[in-house]
Amino acid sequence: VFFILGVSLKRFTQGYGSTAYFFFGHVVFVTCILFTVASALNVLPFYNYAHSIIKFGSACEMVMFSMSLAARIDTLKTDKFRLEQEKKLEHEKSVASEKHLLELSQMNKQLEKALQVRSEFLANVSHEIRTPMNGVLGMLELMDDPNMNSIQSHYLETAKRSGRTLLELIDDVLELSKIEAGELALDMNHFSIREFCNDLTSLYTPIAQSKRLELVLNVDAFVPDTMICDRVRLWQVMTNLLSNAIKFTHKGKVTIRISLDRSQGNRIRFSVKDTGVGVAPDSQGLIFESFKQADGTHTREYGGTGLGLSISQKLVILMGGELKIRSKLGQGSEFSFMLPCVMEENEPLLPQTNKAQEVPMSAPVSESQLRVLLVEDNAVNQAVAVGMLRKLGIISMIAVCSGVEALVVLKQAKFDLVLMDIQMPDMDGYETTRCIRELEGAAAQTPIIAMTANAMDGDREKCIEAGMNDYLSKPIRLELLKEIIEKYGSRKDNIGTQQAV
């Protein structure tokens, strides 16, 4: 490690900027090791946190390595652009340059290879970080106890918040990587704009009220109720804009305005306006770049990675629009974009009342009825899952460490639900599920839920194709596990005669 520190520092002084990430990542990791050693020798009174600190150092080191790889790819892109410009100049002068064509071909191959390596690297990094973080966040959630004093509750909430922040950073980096690689596909469907806006205000009104801000929704009467768009990606953009507006506004209000613009055909204009701190004119173009914010002090005061607006801009462009900003320093900001819309025939263009929809609560899971089989080879993750199941009232369960053991148990007893890990040494979750479906034959099938640290596009589809019913991404959240159990645990009539476990 110290040898790599020296080499990376030397290469950085020679002009290789990407090595700075290697240097910083190793410095953080070595610092965490020294901190742990000092705690073990009672030099520092934090021995109980030593294990978490080592995991934090490892996670930071992996994130820095992925950023270094991204910087290298950006350098390759710049070199490619330079070579293309040289090729165009030579073509205009009618002078063929075989050398430049060869260099461009080689650069394209290097770029394609680098992009492939990056995708594989990010997938592996995501899995390797999510697996230990599942254990950390799961144990922290199980430690949550109403009998804890205020200091203990503060420490616990701080640790949980830090873990969630790290996961958000990983998700943002993966999202940005998929967009830049052209691997993100839109799912275009009909949905109600007014229902979409009601969901937004229902989610963010309590957050705005906690800061004594007014959240206003204004939907023009001439906006059609139905829109064809990717609702998930539009939701991602709007929630990012609303979160930023509330974050950077200390008093006043935040306004969501949806209107119909006929100047360029039928296009719907989405706008989020606040009365917050505003953005200086010379910084307005900077905020849409990755890992950039308008002012370095914003990072220290408000937090954030500088990826939200960059991802939002790219998603809006992918949907056929462009994210724009109008702002004055100290007077607030307005972010807006326009997207194509489809007018439904004979649709009344009248104002509609924004009514909050009531969501029916599911019935609690019965302790005496539900039988769960947990298939998980990682001891920590198995302990987390068992603890969560018990916290949800599940007392009838069996936990096994491999797919082979799962098949043996399923031949001896019936279960209402199977929670299946994917990556296992002897037989992975896909193969185990196929064997279970063959074992059950045409009879009523037991619901199988995947629990995996894989979070890339296509992982959910692979689980469904293998015969699973649903998918949970690690770290597993207690409320999502509860929803899955309530959704599939009630299908006892589809499973047949149950045997006591």
Account of the 3D structure:
- The chain is of the alpha/beta class.
- It has helices at residues 2-13, 19-40, 50-92, 98-143, 150-180, 193-210, 231-247, 296-302, 308-318, 379-391, 403-412, 429-440, 459-465, 478-488, and strands spanning 189-192, 214-219, 226-229, 253-261, 267-274, 324-328, 332-340, 371-375, 396-400, 417-421, 448-452, 470-473.
- The longest helix is centred in the first third of the chain and has 46 residues, at 98-143.
- The model is unreliable at 344-366 and 492-501 (pLDDT under 50).
Portion of residues within helices: 40-55%
Q: Compute the average pLDDT.
A: 77
Counting DSSP H or I runs of 4 or more residues, the number of helices is: 14
How many DSSP E strands?
12
Classify the secondary structure makeup into a structural class: alpha/beta
What is the terminal separation in angstroms? Answer: 51 Å
Q: Radius of gyration, Cα only, in angstroms?
A: 26 Å
Spatial order of the strands forming the largest sheet: 2-4-5-7-6
Low-confidence stretches: 344-366, 492-501
Beta-strand residue fraction: 5-15%
The SSE string, one letter per element, is HHHHHEHEEHEEHHEEEHEHEHEHEH
Shape: globular
Largest sheet: 5 strands, mixed
